[in-house]
């Protein structure tokens, strides 16, 4: 019995946590500290805060992986959720390891906008597209993150003659197409943008650079 107890403790999953980008939400964990824990299989359950019964996640029932996709299960983005994981090895089951409480709307990382750049004589035209959530409308199109948040776009210009690292904020607002005027011909300019949520005071990472020479 003691040996079993020891195995039980040593295969118990560690660091159970939710990771989420644009509401694509996964539960991650690390194997227990026993060397043989790498051969363990895992079982995942989830529930909404306040519910008494846990739900099994069938796709993550007896899996060797250390990650489980719970995007579909956490689609009510204002609700707080918990996840938990247990391991089994050689007929022995560990206790459950619990995540902390996770509320998608407050905690998902919002990605940068998709940026495309065109130019006409002395100006650059920047087109911005909000990141998509994984959730779909009845007709099948994906719902963008602007449905869930009051998103602003922040657009920065980098003049490559001056300094690659120096970003100048040229626009903040909700427009999807903006025009940056009075630029110098023959100079290479790069544009990066990010999304900003005033209510949460949070910015996304920067988009990848889109560069153009006038």
Account of the 3D structure:
The chain is elongated and about 75 Å long. It is mainly β and 214 residues long. Strands 3, 4, 6, 7 and 8 form a five-stranded antiparallel β-sheet that branches. The chain has helices at residues 2-10, 104-107, and strands spanning 14-21, 24-30, 41-48, 55-63, 67-69, 81-89, 92-93, 97-98, 114-120, 123-129, 132-136, 142-144, 152-159, 168-173, 177-180, 188-197, 202-203, 210-213. The model has no long low-confidence stretch (mean pLDDT 93).
Summarize the structure.
With 214 residues, this protein is mainly beta.
Name the descriptors.
214 residues, mainly beta, Immunoglobulin-like, 5-stranded antiparallel β-sheet, 2 helices, 18 strands
Unreliable spans are none
CATH topology of the largest domain: Immunoglobulin-like
Helical stretch count?
2
Mean pLDDT, to the nearest integer, reads 93
The sequence of SSEs as H and E is HEEEEEEEEHEEEEEEEEEE
- CATH homolog superfamily of the largest domain: Immunoglobulins
CATH C-level label of the largest domain: Mainly Beta
